Amino acid sequence: MANLQHIRRRIKSVKNIQKITNAMDMIARSRFNAARDALLSNVPYVTKTKEIMRRVMGQMRGQEYEHPFIKTRDELIAEQQEGAGKFLFIVIASDKGLAGSFASNVFKSAHDTIEYDGTEANTSLDDDGDDENFHKKNFDALKGIKPAGKRTPKQQRQMSATGSVAKATAHQGGADSSGAKVSVAREYHDADYIDGIELITVGRKATTHFKQRGYNIIKSYHGISERPQYKYAKEITDLVMERFASGEIIDVTLIYTQFKSAISCVPDDVTLLPIVTDDYAKSSANLKEEYIYEPDVVSLLDKFMPRRIATRIYGAMLHSAASELSSRMNAMSNATDNAQELVGRLNLFYNKVRQAGITNEINEIVGGANALE
Predict the structure, then answer these.
(1) Who contacts 192 (Cβ-Cβ below 8 Å, separation ≥6)?
(2) In Å, how far are 65, 121, 149, 156, 198 from 169, measured between CA atoms?
(3) pTM over 0.85
(4) Between the N and C ends of the chain, which has fewer C-beta atoms within 10 Å?
(5) Which residue has the higher pLDDT, 102 or 366?
């Protein structure tokens, strides 16, 4: 028979844990409201910078203009085939745990992107709501050669996202016949791909995870996952643009969690650099108005581009913060409910054991009394 004292201690322990999870739930709920408000307040600014970028790039069509951050599709393919530089990934996760599968989902998405061998294509929505093809496209697909081999269930979902294999392979030499934005794959061989990768991590969880796996982390930020600030996004932008301009890196990808609702958060990755002019061809063609820029469109682009990149990084931080807090809120709420259910079961078990003990004592007394007669 179970010990009543042991059951009482177990009930007390579960109640103490329930108090902690309930308190964390309330804290996460209050912080989540602030994070969501910050995200919603940032949306108009992100939308406007997106519109300005589209208009500026559309205004520059047909002009001879060289910029280290802007490339055509053919230039991008040739550069990445030559292996002229490294790939940089900005991974945004959390500083603390107890947020359900938030961090693990980010890491899984990051590994799928970083370690992808370039055998299939994939499409996602970026933080602006545009179709942004991941870097998961190999050169064979861009050349119109259908990748060989049986597809995994995940690859089937990826091809469904792009519409069909034909859509992915319709880009003959970089021509985008479907209107989707296409980016070039990173091809890695064996474990040597780690040497060509650099990471910038936001959150202690991300730093610890990738450092244990031997990745080169050139910069890490801790203590800002729940309360992001624009100055850190600007600092990351300055570092990224400096290394990109020097030729040390040829591709910058941002990996974060996109906040959709309080119960839906989806890991996502978008390309920050280089900016491919082909991606703006169709969207800018629909713009009827033409603006006059002073002093000129080139000077505006030089000044505006760092702000646009910083805005996207800051927006991803806000998305990640809202996603982290909503995940923690849901996890702690479920933990509190589970603790309440466990306390109920333990109380029922305690009463049954106690009743069985009393019945046993009565039986012993009656048996003893009968023996004396």
Answers:
(1) none
(2) 29, 9, 16, 15, 29
(3) no
(4) C
(5) 102
Residues 6+ apart with CB under 8 A from 16: none
CATH code for 21-72+82-102+192-340? 3.40.1380.10
The CA distance from 351 to 343, in Å, is: 12
Q: Is the dihedral of CA 216, 219, 224, 228 positive or negative?
A: negative
Looking at residue 246, its pLDDT comes to: 84
Q: How far apart are CA 67 and CA 88, in angstroms?
A: 19
- Among 88, 150, 89, which Cα is nearest to 119's? 150
Regarding predicted confidence, which is higher, 200 or 145? 200
For 90, the 3-state DSSP assignment is strand
| CA 284/CA 301 separation, integer angstroms | 15
| pLDDT tens, position by position, 194-243 | 778 899 999 999 999 999 988 999 999 999 998 999 999 999 999 999 88
Delimit the domains of the chain by residue range. Answer: 4-19+341-372, 21-72+82-102+192-340, 116-187
DSSP 172: G
CA distance 219 to 274: 20
Pairing type for strands 197-202 and 131-133 reads: unpaired
Which residues does 254 contact at the CB level (< 8 Å), separation at least 6? 89, 90, 92, 269, 270, 271, 272, 312, 313, 316
Q: Among candidates 219, 285, 256, which has minimal Cα distance to 132?
A: 256
Neighbours of 210 (CB within 10 A): 23
Closest CA relative to residue 270, chosen from 91, 150, 120: 91
In degrees and rounded to multiples of 5, residue 258 shows phi and psi of: -85, 125
Taking Cα atoms as reference points, which of 199, 229, 227, 232 lies closest to residue 213? 199
SS3 assignment for 38-83: HHHHHHHHHHHHHHHHHHHHHHCCCCCCCECCEECHHHHHHHHHHC
